[in-house]
Amino acid sequence: MTTIPYKSYLEPQGKYTGLLDWLTSTDHKRIGLMYMYAIGIFFIIGVLLGLLMRIELFKPGETIMGPQTYNGIFTVHGVIMIFMVVIPGLSAVFGNLFMPIQIGAKDVAFPKLNLLSWYIFMAGAILAVLSQFTGNGPPDTGWTFYAPYSTQTGTNVLMAVTAAFVLGFSSILTGLNFIVTIHRMRAPGMTWFKMPLFPWALYSTAWIQLLATPIVGITLLMLIAERVFKIGFFDPALGGDPILFQHLFWIYSHPAVYVMILPAMGVITEIIPTFCQRRIFGYKAIALSSIAIAGVGYLVWGHHMYTSGMSFTARWIFSFLTFIVAVPSAIKVFNWVATMYKGSIALKTPFLYALAFIFLFMIGGLTGLSLGSLATDVYVHDTAYVVAHFHYIIFGGMGFAFFAALHYWFPKMYGKMYNQKIADIAWLILFFGFNMLYFPQFVLGLQGLPRRYYDYMPQFETGEVLSTIGGFVLFIGIIMMITNLIIAARNGPQAPDNPWGGKTLEWTIPSPPPMENFDTPPVVSKEPYDYE
Amino acid sequence: MSDVAIKHDEHRDDLGAKLGMWLFIFTELLLFGGLFLVYAVYRDIYAEDFHLGALQLNVTLGTLNTVVLLISSMTVAMSITAIQRGNKKLSMQLVLLTVLLACVFLVNKYFEWGAKFEHDLYPGSDLVLQFKRGSIIFFGLYFFMTGLHMFHVVIGMVVLMVMWFKLKNTTINKDDNVLLENGGLYWHLVDLIWIFLFPLLYLVT
Predict the structure, then answer these.
(1) In this structure, is residue B112 part of a structural domain?
(2) Which value does ipTM take for this structure?
């Protein structure tokens, strides 16, 4: 038996030094960090584009840009945020960083494939960014690429669609890797129901990635074929049907929403027992509700298309299924709250983010139900109400969960502790700014403000101004949070191995972890949240 | 437990590798599944045009190609058995034979497509654009589906050639041949998709 002295994964490992040491590393933690740095940069770009839109909407009429530029910016904002930030976000970053450790493995099942996924992701991301600056201007179709406009507009749709296809491929490979890892590499004694709930969430997510992404892949290929070879899948003049595009697109893109939110729920499920020092309430219900969401979520895509032209039967069935999918989400929320009951709660930064998540996710979820019912949807379809709902789920849900995960696992990732007071203040600013930015848009939407317009009627001005100010407050919060973490990663005080008193396996190893995580493979005999 | 306690030992899990390959094959089937869905929708709408379109296709060449692919699936399966029995030379020959059969498929396809182009039967041609909408879609689907399949044939050939080199330098050997099995699985997938395409496009007249 050979043993090697402890050396953290952040230190240079072998053949190469510096950047090359990282770019050739197949270590799951390093790949996770590389995803995080890339996604962080894309996120900032997306945020800045969002701010530009908010500035444009500060006053009625043309403020800083014309309609064509605005169309380009909301498309780019959508493509970057959806395909490059929120879909890969939690599973590629924290899934890679902590899922193998949590199940007691040394790495994922296919480490080389994992690195390849990162390179494919970067290739797709570079294509997506390039599509904004080459050809005849940035794509102006919205991130949904709806046909027939996307097959006809002269802007650079082709490259953006190719980018989305490539990014999807990366997503499939990550999902495949995670499924095999969870099936084959759990530590001795870790049965399915002794596995922590974050891997459970990632397992469900991975199945969605695997089952849904090929559909958008082929759809985007058909779109490319239509543009390049005039094969009229979606153009009525060539025998096609544009509604078919919407169906195929949402068959993927609705499940994709669960790719975003399921790992977020997994993160929250890890954080709440730790900071309440209490066993999770309803372990099996939470684990299986992830599977249920993944299953039912696959069948609700039609609720994006109530006004597109579908039979009434199809519409009420989709509406019914949409209501069904809310049930497992609610199960999770009730279980989180029940876990807190009689717990010894420590109001630390990760827990604050988790609380914000529950609050914002509930608003997002419930407004989602009012959009899922036929009558109200027809009224608020394509208004700012949808924008507000979507951002409450995606930013308030997935985004805040990402920040929660970041603050929760930061000491483990870098072995350093951040300034918790500044982190708390940043959280407060973020939370306040977020609600100020998006809540007015619910009201504006109900009053009839359509989305995706660079201009608006004067009666909407109060709400738009509030929203823009909120956007800047949010931006200050983000900058403050990131600066605090960067300072901590460089010069923060040493963090202990288990700063929060967590019980899952990642807290049993040194911070930052050594290259292959465990000196001796752990043998699991207890359930993951064994507090009492 | 001493074998797992050694650090930096090579992780090997044949069952896991095969599970990964099966999952990947599943995603490929779903990719084509999207196309089959589109095919089903349009065939339902334009049943008669699809019937007339299918009459234009060369069933003889299609049948020949089906036979060629089926045989190639057999040869790749035989190569796996060969290496499992330790016969490296035979295994390499069989892989090479599979690649040759794939070439035969592509040559046939070249003549088939070539004839279509000669008769102006390709998407976006002046002739096709005068057809009824269902026929335009049929020829669009025909070229897109067989084209995407052809692309997979080419990838499969590259995979098989990699297998050949790995057999040559004994990376794949009697005891460690899961790579060849996975390569073979991919080739079976290429075959399987054609088995679906052939009746859908050529035979349902």
Answers:
(1) yes
(2) 0.90
